[in-house]
Design brief:
By secondary structure, this protein is an all-alpha fold. Helices cover 73% and strands 2% of the residues. It has helices at residues 2-14, 18-30, 42-62, 80-91, 95-108, 111-118, 124-131, 133-142, 146-170, and strands spanning 36-37, 70-71. The chain has a two-stranded parallel ribbon. The chain has a single domain (2-170), classed as ATP12 ATPase (ATP12-like fold), CATH 1.10.3580.10. It starts with a helix and ends with a helix. The chain has nine helices and two strands, in the order H-H-E-H-E-H-H-H-H-H-H. It is globular.
Length: 171
């Protein structure tokens, strides 16, 4: 069913509303999850640096679109040129690939992770783990409640479906 839902979305939603889907997807770059690091605890900040910075560097190199990184929650402005380059990369996707990219980006809360998944830089498992790095850290400290587990399972399934959809498009 998830793959059928993605195919239906490509036909019924993305095709007729392509500009809006591109806009929604690209908007994640303006406040990408991977660009906002924790001030503490130190163990979490280190995990973010180790897990996220290589992908921020990959976007800078692969797309020539460097993004600024900060610690804390105060909004930072991303370079206009980088945002324009990332927009072009998203716009270059056909409706089928855009559907999967948009789904992965939304599930991850990160255009960087969505693009890395779409480009084969990471797999679905890594995309989920990196998108939920903060949550996983909190679970290690405090445990996981059933509602949060269901939410995480849903996100993991959405990311896996997007990755499978992309794999099928490539074959």
């Amino acid at each position: 069913m998830p793959l059928t839902r993605l195919a239906g979305s490509a036909i019924d939603l993305v095709g007729p509303h392509r500009a809006a889907v591109v806009e929604r997807t690209v908007a994640y770059a303006e406040s990408d999850l991977l660009c906002y690091r924790a001030l503490g605890p130190e163990a979490l900040a280190e995990r973010q640096e180790v897990g996220w910075q290589p992908l921020v560097d990959w976007v800078a190199q692969h797309f020539e679109a460097p993004l600024r990184v900060t610690a804390g929650i105060v909004a930072i402005e991303q370079p206009a040129l980088s945002l324009a380059i990332l927009r072009r990369a998203v716009e270059a996707s056909d409706d089928w690939h855009l559907t999967a990219l948009a789904a992965a980006t939304a599930a991850c809360g990160s255009l960087i992770l969505g693009l890395a998944l779409a480009e084969g830089e990471i797999d679905a498992e890594a995309a989920f783990a990196l998108s939920e790095l903060d949550e996983s850290y909190q679970i290690e400290l405090w445990g996981e409640d059933p509602e949060a587990r269901r939410r995480r399972e849903g996100l993991s399934a959405d990311i896996a479906a997007a990755a499978r959809f992309l794999a099928l498009l490539a074959s």
